[in-house]
Amino acid sequence: MTKEALQSEARLLAAPKSSFVWGVSTSSFQIEGAAHIDGRGDSIWDVYCRKPGTVKNGDTGETACDHYHRYGEDVALMRDLRIDAYRFSISWSRLLPRGRGAVNEHGLAFYDRLIDALLAAGIEPWICLYHWDLPQALHELGGWQNRDIAGWFADYAALVARRYGDRVKRFATFNEPCVFTLFGYGLGWNAPGIADADALHKAIHHVNLSHGAAIGALRTTVPQASVGAIHNRQPCFPAGTSPNDAAAAVKFAGYWNDAFPYPQHFACYPAALAEAVEPFQKPGDMALIAQPVDWFGLNHYSPHYIKADHNVIGATFGAPPPNVPRTTIGWPIVPDAFRDTLLDVHRRFSLPIYILENGTATDDTLDGAGHIEDAGRIAYLRAYIDAMQEAIAAGVDVRGYFVWSLLDNFEWTSGYSQRFGLTYVDFATQRRIPKASARWYANLIAANRRRLVQPISGNCTEAAMATR
User: Fold this and answer.
1) Which of 50, 90, 331, 461 is deepest in the core (most CB within 10 A)?
2) Residues acting as catalytic residues
3) Rounded-to-integer distance, Cα 358 and Cα 302, Å
């Protein structure tokens, strides 16, 4: 992308708040590697990747982006992006190889080094306690199907808070619990590969219990902490015109959008799954789950188009209408759905919103000059940030936006075939190459921070760009 194009794309939020947070997000299993180094225990994803046919090309997270050894280089990339904050997750099995009991000092020390490097670079660390990588040892004790996990998770949260709470004040309990429960316990598509209705509903309830227990542990240990959870919310439309597809879309939305925010905020389950979860509830559970939080973490990529199915919830993904544009991996591009989701979250939950994942995978390749001109990603980010601006103008209290992701990484069952990063990673050499989108995002952040222009359609000036 040319300098002139970058200038024209660096748009400003109308009347931006000085506290608006620009950031990037990653997760431990997807970037850290070092799977068998310094005492780390197996997670369910380590074990799942070793099963033939589960991950594209037989890819694993054993090396990933080798962030465990290259975190200094990655912090430098973040500094060049001019971000305010970095949201990352902790590997539970790196701190507690068995999930509980003996603590691994090597693992604790790694995150000490990372946090200190971030702070030295002027970047605020945001910790997510859980991004899908349950210690395998706990899975063998029942994992999310075992009610005792709420206590195990609270103990883990307290350990993290005690060690890092002197430097970290932003904590999320879970990232996208709807995905790892539905895909991992209901549909069998992700680790640990279970497809069972009771397993799914136990997992949903026990994750919610764990959220509530962890909020209590975080507030007790770090009284000044700002805490929340990160939910994936996406409109669910019928894929076809049949009544069965319409009913399936409503039911799927109950699991995808409401199974966790509703009990956590309103102390009740949505109608789509209330009866199925009821056998696993005990008196006092909903009061424990519905602990007050400080913000709503939102991940959003696209709407879903849902059709009826014979699986455990009676619904699955269908194809979007042929006139809906798609990313190179087939996800619909509908910025208006992002705006509408922000309006809906604001109306339902009345909390400040941080967008903690938004982005797209594109077919990124090096050109003859060794650059990656990812115009498709820039167009996507521009459109979705404009949609966010529309929501802000309509009164939605959005306080931050984080791109997924800093680096190309291990994308779960897609392995390394999907590239979401602002930074290209050559996985054979671990060389990092910032893409055109990284330059675009850095200029956007810098321009908004300086408040050079008020209208969102305004362009950065040559003088402003010269200070880059």
Assistant:
1) 90
2) 176, 357
3) 9
